[in-house]
Amino acid sequence: MAEPVPVTVRYFAAAAEAAGREEELLEVEPTAGALRAVLASRYGPAMQRVLDVGSLLVDGVVTRDPARPIRARVDVLPPFAGG
Fold it and tell me: What is the reported pLDDT for 44?
């Protein structure tokens, strides 16, 4: 188990609605999977739905890999429609 680190988490669209905010500072273990678990626990089913279909932006790279290391800032992105 890694030592928790401070991470600024920014939320967009449905993720911001689920969290009730656009940004916050959390102390979490430094992996994407640990952050996802904290967010789902903290914000419940609405956030879990976003996490199930969305992605995290870590160091400018979109990821769904739970083992991906995270650092000072992570963006929680809902799925985007495209075309």
Answer: 98
Which CATH fold topology does 5-77 show? Ubiquitin-like (UB roll) (3.10.20)
The pLDDT of residue 2: 82
Please state the domain extents for the chain: 5-77
Residue owning tokens 């790279």: 61
Which residues of the chain have a pLDDT value below 50? 81-83
Q: Are 47 and 18 in contact (CB under 8 A)?
A: yes
Q: What CA–CA distances, in Å, run from 33 to 9, 38, 71, 82, 83?
A: 14, 9, 13, 26, 29
pTM passes above 0.85:
yes
Sort 74 into a burial class: Cβ within 10 Å, 0-12 / 13-18 / 19+: buried
